[in-house]
Amino acid sequence: MDAVLIPSPAPAVSPPSAQRFARALLHHAPPGHPDAGFFATVIGTSLAHQDLARSGLCPDELQQLLHHLFPGALASDDARLAALREQAASYAARGRGDPQPGFTLLLRVLLDAYRAPEPETTTWVTGVLVHACLRPDHLWRDLGLSGREDVTFLLARHYPGLVIRNVRNLRWKHFLAYSACEHAGLPPSAAPGCPACEDYGVCYPDAPD
Q1: d(Cα 204, Cα 209) in Å, to the nearest integer?
Q2: d(CA 11, CA 100)
Q3: Letter string b/e over residues 2-40, b meaning 16 or more CB atoms within 10 A of that residue's CB
Q4: Which end of the chain is more exposed for a tag (fewer CB within 10 A), N or C?
Q5: Cα–Cα distance, 186 to 37 (Å, whole number)
Q6: Per residue in 96-116, pLDDT tens?
Q7: 145, 142, 209, 207: which is closest to 173 by C-alpha?
């Protein structure tokens, strides 16, 4: 696995800012879609950070997701979505790098092996999860969600066979990294973002200081 490169912690984001973007996006979502709130939150949080690469979606994937789940959002005259239009254009020109291609490949292979056949949005969920595991916080906070239960619901919808394997009730980022290594026949290793987390010693008590 590649050497661990820890992203710099992102500046604090005002929750109302991310929520305002998310609410504006949800005006363009199909009523009752089970993934609309998740993606609106992820994109809204990324907009609030002024970094759409933080979503984990490359520019083409972001465009596809917006057209599929939030049609009309990019063309909307809603002032709350002006940042989306501006940042999406800049992001398309800049592109997204991958500081940990070895880890992201391992995790993508794992998630693809356990993906449910029905949801049409699972490919995008995979991209979001993989890149969230590069950041140094609990997975639910990295994603802008309310708590661990939100991550459990998301994983159960998209990767049900993987969720039932977490019999030790490990934290989700810990479990995903462990499972990705196990699936590939490699020794267990922490996710790239984990060593900078405040609870790293709780999840990995035997890790060297």
Answers
A1: 10
A2: 21
A3: eebebeeebeebeeebbbbbbebbbebbeeebebbebbb
A4: C
A5: 35
A6: 888 788 999 999 999 999 999
A7: 142
Continuous segment of H or E residues that includes residue 106: helix 101-114
Domain boundaries, given as residue ranges, for the chain:
15-94, 101-203
pLDDT of 2 strictly over 60: no
- DSSP classification of residue 196: G
Report how far apart, in Å, the C-alpha atoms of 175 and of each of 23, 91, 162, 182 are: 31, 31, 10, 10
- Nearest Cα residue to 115 out of 55, 164, 155: 155
Tokens in use for 148? 């661990």
What's this model's pTM, rounded to 2 decimal places?
Answer: 0.89
d(CA 143, CA 125): 11
- Find the helix or strand (DSSP H, E) in which 41 lies: helix 36-48
* Residues whose CB falls within 8 Å of the CB of residue 95, separated by 6 or more in sequence, listed in order: 58, 59
Secondary structure letter of residue 115 according to DSSP:
-
Q: Which two tokens stand for residue 175?
A: 């479990």
SS3 assignment for 51-102: CHHHHCCCHHHHHHHHHHHCCCCCCCCCHHHHHHHHHHHHHHHHCCCCCCHH
Q: Tell me: the pLDDT tens digits for 78-96?
A: 999 999 999 999 999 998 8
Q: What does the alpha-carbon distance between residue 84 and residue 63 come to, in Å, rounded to a whole number?
A: 11
Which candidate, 28, 126, 139, places its Cα nearest to that of 36?
Answer: 28
